[in-house]
Every structure is written in C-alpha cells, then in structure tokens.
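For reproducibility, we list the full input for the heme C complex.
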Amino acid sequence: MLKNSKNVFAVVLILAIWFVSTSYAQTKTIKDGVFTEAQVAAGQNAYEANCNVCHDIKFYRDIWKGWVDRPLLNFWYIIVAEMPADNPGSLLDAEYTNIVANILSEMGFPSGDMELDPNIGMDEINIVAP
Ligand code: HEC
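The corresponding predicted structure, in tokenized form, follows.
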C-alpha cells in the first residue's frame, strides 16, 4: 500500500514536470519568426492606405514599452477594435493581421515560415523589446 502511493506520487510528479516544461516550450516571442514576408508586403500597402496618415513607424517605438510582456493577440485586438481611429473595425481581419506583421517587421523583428494568424496561438506569442 505504501509502495503504491509512492508510485502514484512519482507519476503525479512526472506529469507535473512534463506539463510545466511543455507549457514553457509553447511560449514564443515576436523574435521567433512568427509572420511571413508575404504578410509584411501585403501589410505595407494596407498600412499606407489606412494608418500612415496618423502614425509613422516612430510612433510604435514610443508606445512599445507599454506592450512588452503582453500577448501579441492583445496588440492585434486593440488595433481591430480601435483603429483606424476615424473608422474602427473597417478592415478585414486578415488586413489587420498583415498590418501587424508589417509593424513588427518595421520594428526590426524577423519574418519566418510561420503565418501569423489570430486564431492560432497568437495569445501565446509574447511581445518583447526590439
Ligand atoms: C485618424 C487618425 C488615425 C488613424 C487613421 C489610425 N490611428 Fe491609430 N491612433 C490614433 C489615435 C488618436 C490614437 C490614440 C492616441 C495615441 O496613442 O497617440 C491611436 C492609437 C494607436 C495605437 C496605440 C494603442 C495603445 O493603446 O497602445 C496603435 C497600436 C495604433 N493606433 C495603430 C494604428 C493602426 C495599425 C492603424 C491602421 C489600421 C491606425 N492606428 C490608424 C489615430 C489614428
């Protein structure tokens, strides 16, 4: 009996370690190539058409500190909900996503093979300083 409960304890401990290590492994940052070059290119046109009139890229350098350590999905969501300030929510989700890819690229973060998608794991991509 005593031996059995020790085994159960060992199994629970192993599961706990496995769980913690895999959840750490899932946390990405915006330095991990989380958007594609194609999204950046598409986002550049959308940015110029819808955002550039009020914010140039320097704007993001100024506000970035307030976004560090928050999920990229929150950044995406606030832009969807509030921007363009004169017509919030007027773009397609994919256009907003491309715009975010373009902003990240302009900030100096690397593109990669992974397509940025607000429905897939964007809540687990952390914003970090450039
Ligand atoms: C008509 C002007 C205007 C347009 C167009 C516009 N914005 Fe804004 N934006 C504002 C204003 C005003 C604020 C709030 C004041 C500030 O932070 O400077 C703001 C704030 C922001 C913020 C900061 C949010 C925060 O709380 O940190 C982001 C990010 C942003 N805009 C991105 C965009 C993007 C991306 C677009 C294009 C889709 C866009 N804006 C289009 C005027 C505009």
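Residues 50-51, 53-55, 63, 66, 78-79, 83-86, 99 surround heme C (CB under 6 Å). The longest strand covers residues 28-29. Both points were considered when choosing residues for closer inspection.
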